[in-house]
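Prompt: For my understanding, could you write out one protein's sequence and backbone structure tokens?
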Amino acid sequence: MQGFLTEEQIGVLREAHYSCRYRKSADRIKAILFLNEGFTYQETAKLLMLDDVTIRRYEKQFEKVGVDGLIECRYIGSHGILTKMQEIGLTAHLKNKTYQTVKEIVFYAQKHYRKTYSVEGMTHLLHRLGFVYKKTKQVPGKLNLAEQEQFKKEYEELKKSKRIEDKLYFLDATHPQHNNMPFYGWIYKGETKTIKANSGRRRLNLNGALNLENMDITVLSEKTINTEAMKRLVMELERKQQRGKIYLLADNASYNHSYEFTDFLKSHKRIEIKYIPSYSPNLNVIERLWRFFHKKHRDKYFERFKEFEKAVLYFFQHIHRYDSELKTLLTDSFQTISI
């Protein structure tokens, strides 16, 4: 009977075991996990300090009710569980309405389905249905879904119509601060983990371009991000790519629209700029690269600003060390955001 559980079932059972308050419930879950690993009834019984008759009973119970039943018979009240159709209905409801506490969802299930759950039971049901407890995310109130969809359509048409030697670059700037920022991590209970910080508030001004086809990444350090910085970035891209058109996908920062910059582009015939809709960072793939960088560098301490700048530029100069991680992160599978 070894290997009868799927990876998903193993994950659910382990999560349930972690939350168990009662030994009998935990033993039932461990018994199934041990049998799945290939342990015999006698070996499993010895590990759990039970008898093999009890282990066989747990196995029969599992065969009868499955993973969900094995957990739910422990976590859910005496008035039964949601039917499959009710689970679908609850899922649809929770996708449209966000509750801040599990108690509120327990109350909703009791009111609308006449089913009684404990808070613990409802928590496990929510995990099984694919819900997690996390922060809501703020989005700009002025974002326009129609404009996002139009950009996606034009982007796909551009990809299909461009020649092989033509390149598309996502442009953006970021401003890492010369200081460490506290972050969440797994820390032993009762202990405090500290990170070094310095009092300086100086920032780097990085101007970047990202080509998804060949994962070419260009990052320039500037005193400030303005029209002159944009000109230097364009000339660097022209130097690197001697043939074909260069399409720039840029946000609506004032320096990208300035008369001086647009006039500059008139004398650089291979360059064509297209603007990403306002308030839509989700459509600019290089934003993900910046987040990746900040995550990698958030716990690194540098006494001097020059050391910090050198390390940051080294990170981008040797970015291909992270190709395996960036391969799935930097894609143009855009997700539109609506309010």
Remarks:
- Residues 195 and 299 are 7 Å apart (CA to CA).
- The beta strands are 167-174, 205-211, 216-222, 246-250, 271-275.
- Residues 1-75 form one domain.
- The chain has three domains: 1-75, 80-136, 145-182+197-329.
